[in-house]
Structures are given as structure tokens and as C-alpha cells.
Write a structure and sequence with these properties.
By secondary structure, the protein is α/β, with parallel strands linked by helices. The chain is built from 11 helices and 8 strands. Helix content is about 40%, strand content about 15%. Bound molecules: 1,3-dihydroxyacetonephosphate.
């Protein structure tokens, strides 16, 4: 089953979010069958209201999760709290790494929090432009995996989703090329395979970075691409629906 995940980032008021969800629900209700995982990751503040109108055809995800279970962490929202509303959470998005200095140690703790509360982490990795230009990107990707996700035991590792999001492609309007996507997804799969063998195929590897309705199909035909993590193009419900339709083609 292919994943399509809308990461709204810091966009939409509650009213706008509800309008989007109502429109998406109507649209999906009119489809004969839905054979994909469709997830919406709104701002945390909208999760309670959106979870009330949630249909069976899609799920909600958190965009972020606290690195501790409870206590004096002003402004944070714990996995336990979020687990009342979501079964998934994005962890380690490059915007969190960059603007909030989330390092490997914090991200590992966030993964553990998710798994302790039955939340599936959607773990983001990706190199920045300097690493790409210096031809250093495979080393960076391996490091990002080795110092976080790969520290989990096998059972937990198998409960995760990986999202490859090259930082230079995010919000640029230019997705990575199909060759670049294919190279990285095959590389990530090989790292998981070395650890888990055939079972590693159960871990979805998603691509994110300037996905839209024009490149959805071609990206999804690449080996080891199990879905998309969509930013800007997921904010418009009609555009997002168009992308959902393309999963069936
Ligand atoms: P864009 O689709 O806007 O490039 O964002 C990708 C992203 O960061 C999804 O998490």
C-alpha cells in the first residue's frame, strides 16, 4: 500500500483545516475503494477538532513529538498526549533539525517516545546542499540512520517509516531527479537489508521534496519508493486529491 502524507507545517487556521478535511472526506467517500494510506499532519493545535470529524479513509499524524514523557518542558506535547489523537508522527524533519537544533540524541529519544506509545514514527533524513555538492551525501544518510533509527531493536525498527527528504529539494519547486531518488532509496533499503534481511521490505521508504501532481507518478514508479511526504502541494485540497487519484494509475 502506498503512502501519501500531507505535512501542512505551520499553515491553516482551525477553520481552514476543518474545511479541507470536510472536502477531503466527501471526496474519499465518493471513491469506490481506497487502497492507500492517506495521512494528514496538521498543526498540533488542530488535532482534537480534526480527529472528531475523521473518516475511516484517512488518518492524522503529528508533525513533532516531545523527547520526554512528561514533566517541566514548557511548550512541549508528549507522545502520550498525542496518542489520543494520532497513530503516526513525523520525527526529525529537516526544519526541526535546522531551526530547533534537534540532534541525533534528541531524535533517538523521540523515536523511543513514539514507539512506547504505539505511534508510528515517520523518520525524516536527507542531506543538505553542501553535502550534495561535496559528494558526501551517502555518508550523511548512513550517519543519520546509524545514530538514530538503527539504534532501535529489530522489532521497533520494523514499526517505523523512513522518509528521504533532500533538504535542497524541499520547498524549491524542483524535486530530486528520478536517478537521484532511485539511488538514495536503493541505498537506504540496502542499509535496512543489511540489518533485517528480507524483512526490511516491510519498512516503507517515502520521498519528500517538491512533490506535486506533475511528478507523483514518475516518482512512485521508482524502485523502493513506497509513498510521498508532501508539503506545499498538500495545502490545496483539489491539488492533493489529484495526487491521491494518481496513486491508482
Ligand atoms: P515541499 O513539498 O513543500 O517541498 O515540502 C516537503 C516537506 O518538507 C514535507 O515534509
Amino acid at each position: 500500500m502506498t503512502y501519501i502524507i500531507a505535512n501542512w507545517k505551520m499553515n491553516k487556521t482551525a477553520r481552514e483545516a476543518v474545511k479541507f478535511i470536510d472536502a477531503l472526506t466527501d471526496y474519499l467517500n465518493n471513491k469506490k475503494s481506497i487502497s492507500h494510506h492517506i495521512l494528514i499532519a496538521p498543526s498540533t493545535i488542530h488535532l482534537p477538532i480534526l480527529s472528531k470529524s475523521l473518516s475511516k479513509s484517512f488518518n492524522l499524524a503529528a508533525q513533532n513529538i516531545a523527547f520526554k514523557d512528561a514533566g517541566a518542558y514548557t511548550g512541549e506535547v508528549s507522545a502520550k498526549m498525542l496518542s489520543e489523537y494520532v497513530q503516526y508522527s513525523i520525527v526529525g524533519h529537516s526544519e526541526r533539525r535546522c531551526y530547533f537544533n534537534e540532534d541525533h540524541q534528541i531524535l533517538y529519544q523521540k523515536l523511543v517516545m513514539c514507539l512506547q506509545h504505539n505511534i508510528t514514527p515517520i523518520f525524516c533524513i536527507g542531506e543538505n546542499k553542501n553535502d550534495r555538492d561535496a559528494n558526501n551525501y551517502l555518508t550523511i544518510i548512513r550517519q543519520q540512520l546509524n545514530e538514530t533509527l538503527m539504534l532501535l531493536d529489530d522489532d521497533d525498527l520494523l514499526k517505523t517509516i523512513v522518509a528521504y527528504e533532500p533538504v535542497w529539494a524541499i520547498g524549491s519547486g524542483n524535486a530530486a531527479s528520478l536517478d537521484q531518488i532511485s539511488e538514495l532509496h536503493t541505498y537506504i533499503r540496502s542499509i535496512l537489508f543489511q540489518r533485517l534481511g528480507e524483512k526490511s521490505n516491510d519498512i516503507p521508504i517515502l520521498y519528500g521534496g517538491s512533490c506535486n501532481s506533475s511528478n507523483t507518478q514518475s516518482i512512485l514508479t521508482q524502485n523502493n519508493v513506497d509513498g510521498l511526504l508532501v508539503g506545499g502541494a498538500s495545502l490545496d485540497v483539489v491539488h492533493f486529491q489529484k495526487m491521491i487519484d494518481m496513486l491508482d494509475v
